[in-house]
Amino acid sequence: MISVSDVNLTFETNDGPINALKNVSMEVNEGDFVSFIGPSGCGKTTLLRVIAALETPTEGRVTVNNMTPDEARKARQYGYVFQAAGLYPWRTVSGNIKLPLEIMGYSTSEKEDRTRKVIDLVELNGFERKFPWQLSGGMQQRASIARALAFDANILLMDEPFGALDEIVRDRLNGELLNLWARTRKTICFVTHSIPEAVFLSTKIVVMSPRPGRITDIIESTLPKKRNLNIRDGREFIKIAQRVREGLKAGQTEDVF
Amino acid sequence: MKTSYLANKFIPVSTIVILIGVFWYVVAVPMNSDKVSRQFKNLTASEHILKCWSLKKPKLPTPHQIITEMVNTTFFKKISSKRSLVYHGWITLQATLAGFFLGTLLGILLALGIVHNKAMDLSVMPWVIASQTIPILAIAPMIIVVMNSVGVTGLLPKAIISMYLSFFPVVVGMVKGLRSPDQIQLDQMKTWSASSNQILWYLRFPSSLPFLFASLKVGVAASLVGAIVGELPSGAIAGLGARMLAGTYYGQTIMIWSALFAAAFLAAFLVFTIDFLQKITLKRMAIIR
Question: What is the ipTM, given to two decimal places?
Fold first, then answer.
């Protein structure tokens, strides 16, 4: 579904070139929930932006649904959820969700249908006519997810969507996200810096390290596809979390010592 | 609500107005004293001061003289009369609004060009800034003369001068406003593969409205100044500028001041109107609550 092979990306800055991604290769299969985890500066967001064609790699090959990332972007093959909800203050919740549909030229009845459907999915019923400032941070992010789901993209790219939320809200939204993933059967790429979040959500965890940004480990999760928050106390979960921690440590050594 | 209006608006504003009024009457005495001494002999001190405040052609007319003149020429003259302040104000207002409209249009178009076109971004702004370093008093007569020579007279040359002054704040504000969406919002548009027209219409333009309104308030006041300046060198016989000019010819200081006050009230009215439009627009857009 998504294939990244030998990707290098160097940013030219005033302080000289920065190696944001070095020899990065990985695969995402249809229906996967892939998390990218690592400390800041490891290139996890950059990698997501490369997949979304918001950045162009210096070297290497990326395909998304057998297209180049830019073709996939133009064909609206993915929905992207940013760190900030980025809702338009002058539009209501349903107005915000309709925005991409308006841009893509959907008919009025289609817009209404789809908006109703995704508002159901993220459980924002009753808030359709509220403005963003009337919503909590968690609800804003849910509206933002609904907006990314509203059109027919089978890939959902999420860049630390719950990073700014407190842990209680985050736990709940993580559970909801898993339900949503099961119901919509989308392929999800998810950037995070929280180990429990990555382990809880993912079928595959990509562990990354900074300077240069690279992949240190790719973990196929052995947890069942259907999960609830209780599995976080199980042995399986702790074992995977341990392996993630080791992967992170391995990338750090040269820095710290 | 009522007390806060009293405490936040009425009391401070009226205090300043009273202070200015007192200062004005005090200063009017030495300013007009010579003239009173020349015209009248053997006055007591208090009679002298009262005369200083009620001369027919004083150096500095007092507020009540100006207000009386304004009331007379506003309410007790036929609107079509050449002595009516309403008539002159209307002439100036027409040129102001025409110039303001043209200036806003020009400003928005230039800002769109600057934001969307790299070459314009690099080349236009210095000229826009340079245009405002030329004193308007120097360029106004030239505009009037050049347009006269091609047969364009009346409202349009004044409107052009108004436009020249009012497009500047609009360009500056709109460039800033159209560039105010943050990177996330622009990236988001890109992920939806939006065209630049769609980005303009859905994102840039609504984001720019608070900036536009701030610019319009400055622009409309500048437009009025432009229209008045446009009336000065043209030998215009109508308009607040012409009224001021006539006042200086004949030493009618009260006439000058009442035209000046009329212009100030007109400017305040225009600015408040835009402020009102801004409030209801932004409130409806839920940008302010």
Answer: 0.88
